[in-house]
Amino acid sequence: MPAPVPVVLGEWVGQSVTVDDVINALSSLRYRAERTATRTAVVNLMVAAGDHESAERTASALRRLGAHHPRRTTLIVTEPGPGRSLDASVTLYEAGNETRRVWWEEVTLTVHGAMAEHLDSLMAPLTLPDLLTVVWFPTTPAPHDALVGLADTVLVDARFAGAVDDGQRWTPGPLLELASAVPVIDLSWKRLSPWRRMLAHLFDDPASRPFVSGVSRAEVFARPGPRHLLAGWLCDRLGLTPTTLIQHDAVHASIRLVASVGDRSGRWSVDRPSDEGVVYGRTELDDRPAWVESEALPEHGLTRSLAEAVGDLSHDPIYEAALRCAAELTG
Amino acid sequence: MTTTGPVGPPEPTSGVLQIPNPLAEGISMARKAPPLAMVIFGASGDLTARKLLPALAALADRHALGRSFTVVGVARTPMDDVEFRKLAARAVEDPSPEWESMVRRFRYVAGDYDHPDTFAALSKVLSEVDQSLGTAGNRLYYMATIPATFADVAGALSRHGLATPVRDGAFCRLVVEKPFGRDQQSAQALDDGLHEAFYEDQIYRIDHYLGKETVQNVLALRFANAIFEPVWNRRYVDHIQVTVSEELGVEHRGGFYETAGALRDIVQNHVMQLIGLTLMEPPGRINAEGIRDEKVKALKAIATPRVREVAGEVVRGQYDAGWVSGSPVVGYREEEGVDPISHTETYVSLRLDVDNWRWAGVPVFVRTGKRLPKRLTEVALVFHRVPHLSFPEELAARLMPNVMVLRIQPDEGITLSFGAKVPGQEFRVASVSMDFTYGASFVEESPDAYERLLLDAMVGDPTLFIRSDEVRESWRIVDPLLEAFGEDHLPLARYAAGSWGPVESDLLLERSGRHWRKL
Q: Are B79 and B121 in contact (CB under 8 A)?
């Protein structure tokens, strides 16, 4: 079922305002809405957006999420400079049909000057009680950012969230540091779910299961970040080492495994060969014909990843173990 | 005499699959069917094409069915494997590569159900697929055929050695659809016939309502929350209303409906299941036996209607011509396949009383009918009014009792209505609704009920299937009503299509100072 298209019910914009002004605007928009916009919310979502362009990009993905995960979203844009002031805009959205309607709020704060150093004090009054607070860093996370102190969970994306060392290699340092302070959900990790699920599914087959402990070689293809996560995952789950696990740069993710048991051997692969929205899993065993399975990738990748993330904010020890192994693999 | 039926040996597990799969840890892996051959009796029929094959296709697309799954169709229609595969492929719009690949493995056996050659051929095909596809001797027999054949087919399977596993570790299961008999006597005869061939725990009686997300959410709502269970009883609940409303008429099933009527078609099965889940005590464990034991206890507590006394407790009706959703429709007696002087009821409303500590004095009102204004199924718990209304009457005129509504379809969800102050200078109070609709809070779509139930039968989870004692208790309650209908103790009230049923149905509640919820 496609997500209902959001409709703007009301908007407010203010310059050099206070947080109280923003809170009053939030209430006022709901009461003034043509139909009373009863709040339903499942989470507080704060987005450390960086600049306005990034804020608009992430807001677009979040709007598609709205009807399924109604929430208060606050996008925070920081602008260094002298002084200390706050500009804000508030938008009330509605989506649904005759029998079912949902409303949610989007607040954009442009924080000038020294106020940006105290985002937690700015955000605390805007959080809805009794709900988890999720802080999303769409680009580089800042483990010591004041917002992290407010977060029950932090959302990141390994593609942007790792550091690059002197040799231009991706390292998971910032992610590991963040994960030691607060539960982390990684959107790249979520997007890799179809690949992980397909590979796990291939080895769920009774014919392949005996080989799962005999993997002797693995190759991982992907962009830095996701590639390191996949490699770290395989390293952790299958006991592979840097000599048995080779990584390659590629636009689309792929996994290739070789395993043997006794005098029998096999090859397994999970590929997305092009821009086609399908992942293919292939099993080749020496003593029988190869077979292929497929899984369609969801549309609206970012929105889907966000929806999965917001729908399940539980701690993921498999991710953390993958991250630690990724750090070991990068030396 | 056993209360359920003979119980068989425990279900098997496979050796290779005991090896752990570390790649699957932390991944939300959907359940998967074990290797098996699903034998569909009635493979060329409407149920197979409309429901079973699309559900299997959806399961295939979700990788819930592996390479060692196949379907063997059995029916009287002369067909070969190739033609059956074409039929299966056509049953799905826009078939996926997964489904097309799976269909190529399907087999077909043409023959009469009362001819031994049919089952000899079936046995041969099953051995072949065990060898070629690795279906491991596991069988799921699905009776997508008329109920009159159930016992005969079960008996034939048994005589040909197909009702018992071919090897250690394999399973044989039988899925039957409603109706489970036409009355108490025939239901018992059917059960006896099935039990001659299969143990009770091999039999999976399907009621697709139990596969619906909201029906299962009744269990979550009641037993995962501390705030609802304390008020889920006679101290707080005034009465319960169960509504199963259909906008459609009998369509082209007039001939079948003439032999059924609303009581058999809806009340005996769907309604009784909804009532069981609503009235039951909390089980010690949320598992198949725990839930089914408590459902049966709840049904047992419902008083058996007395044939001579039903006139005051039951209304039966039949629709006349009218307008539904802006279109004129004919009356029931003018429908195709229906006797012009038919006395079959298309509407029933009734009152049931429960004899136990939790629900004594709380009537359960049921209404179901065809050609009502909208399609809707819900269970509503209407709570007692406040013991004393402190607000001036004129300021509380719009205040209604609290109601908790479990919406089964459409728009599955839960609504709680409660009193709140109306904004303004005066202290006026009125009822408002708080609505929880699953689609508003979770991104995953609910699986189709048939998909869920089929997979449950494949993996051997009987929780959402009906046990023989549940069937027996349902018929105990419904049988006296059938007898009263047959002896014409109750007049057949008329109602216009598009209305909410006969006027007499309103009187059923108004006699006790209550009224049907306005839907």
A: no
